[in-house]
Amino acid sequence: MSLAKPHADDSKQGTVAPTPRQRAVLDAALGLLVDPKAALTMTSVAKAASCSKESLYKWFGDREGLLTATVQWQAAKVRAVPLAREGIDLAVLRASLEHFATDWLTVLSGDTSVALNRLAVGEAGGAGHHLGTIVLENGPYAMGRRLEPVLAIGREAGLLEFDDGEAAFRDFFGLVVRDVQIRLLLGDPLKLSDDEIRSEARRATRQFLTLYGASQGSETAKRGPARPHGEDGPHDRDNPHKPNGKE
Amino acid sequence: MSLAKPHADDSKQGTVAPTPRQRAVLDAALGLLVDPKAALTMTSVAKAASCSKESLYKWFGDREGLLTATVQWQAAKVRAVPLAREGIDLAVLRASLEHFATDWLTVLSGDTSVALNRLAVGEAGGAGHHLGTIVLENGPYAMGRRLEPVLAIGREAGLLEFDDGEAAFRDFFGLVVRDVQIRLLLGDPLKLSDDEIRSEARRATRQFLTLYGASQGSETAKRGPARPHGEDGPHDRDNPHKPNGKE
DNA sequence: GGTTAATCGTACCGTACGTTACGGTACAGC
DNA sequence: GCTGTACCGTAACGTACGGTACGATTAACC
């Protein structure tokens, strides 16, 4: 349904251009957030950033504002999605999907993301849901908005077959993330190396193409589902030709 | 293996054999947990359960003990797993998988599960909080332990093809859960009706069998992977008695 | 030098909560 | 009846934290 709301609703994004000093504060907050020893309190942020609490309240309003600004500051850092838009063929599509999966798993399993999601989830219980909404917006929703155009292009090119783009995206999400995120959030000492992430991304992409690849036989039939990826050419997914002009 | 002992696991927690009075207290705690208005504090639990705080500390040691007992009490309630072990064929296997998926989605999207996972995730940040471990144990891990035998049976019967049972389970997990859990935890107002859950379970099962079903192709080809779940009206396959009486 | 604005450091306040302590009540066993 | 036990209700204590106030410091600008 209304999963993706890409419309520019900047009414609440009041965090207009944090000054360098404020950015340093937000980085300090992120540092505290990641540290499992430290608690993210106003006093601790002030001390870590060598600023006064009064300044924190002046700049961010209240604790919620500080957390919101921190989440958005982190989200702003993870904004780079190369997206191949033309000359589409199966190899390019596969590379794009693998790239998405790799990026997503990398972000997901990072300490910062885990800590941030923990904070937002924990905060989502009470009334001030604001934080969870923001993480949701910059997390799953953002991924959907970025991936669905790729899927649409794949469909236009006759490479994919699906009716519901959102459902397709969510299936891809499931194949990529599986139980990794919830396990990390619950404290599972799971650790993903870069190689494992790449491998997972390839597996998820292969499975997704098995499910959604157009029935040109070769993809789904010849290549058995349980079969490992026999590569097809150099999948240099680093094709930053068009870094996703949108948003 | 040594992790899951359905009963008589009083190894580490003194919270064994909760008396009826204590069970009532734990139910009260669960009630508070679900209520987004109330905070789960020792005082509120005592008041809701009409017991004294002194009794709480006597019975559960401290707050952590109370929460742990609450989680385990809830987990003990969700202990019912029909498991078809013989006379296996594709229809039975499919029914088992759909049953698993349905149960899992039902539990996952329940208020209690969401609240419990929120609590555990929020608590998992610091140290010494083994609450996340317990939820993990009774959540994803438990599902894996219960599902993997089914997958193994399916493989022995020549219905499934896979090398790594755990990987297969995790793929199934991803196809079933997708982004539902993280969205719920983050406060997404997503709501799943029973029909939607059944539909999702069928979709996930169909996709899983597409990926892992032994190469009797007809299954995957005829039905097609892109079959949407758009309709929730009366569907011919809605036969809970013997779902999908074999093709 | 003097004035002003921004910021720092810190003391302070109110509240929420975990935890403990204490008085009071019901009841079983003698 | 007396005593011990278990429990309830509540007051009290210590701490942590969000939020505020205020003097001190710096730096820009006249």
Listing every helix as H and every strand as E from the N terminus to the C terminus, the arrangement of chain A reads HHHHHHHHHHH
Mean pLDDT of chain A: 81
How much helix is in the residues of chain A?
A: 55-70%
Spell out the CATH superfamily of the largest domain in chain A.
Tetracycline Repressor, domain 2
Oligomer class? homodimer
User: What's the CATH architecture of the largest domain in chain A?
Assistant: Orthogonal Bundle
Secondary structure tally: strands of chain A? 0
Q: Provide a count of the helices of chain A.
A: 11
N- to C-terminal distance of chain A: 21 Å
* Structural domain tally of chain A: 2
Percentage beta strand of chain A = under 5%
What's the overall geometry of chain A? elongated
CATH class of the largest domain in chain A: Mainly Alpha
> Which spans of chain A of ≥5 residues are poorly predicted at pLDDT below 50?
1-15, 217-247
Please identify the structural class of chain A as seen in this structure.
mainly alpha
What is the third-level CATH name, the topology of the largest domain in chain A? Tetracycline Repressor, domain 2
What summary fits the major beta sheet of chain A?
none
Largest interface: A-B, 53 and 56 residues
- Gyration radius from CA atoms of chain A, angstroms: 20 Å
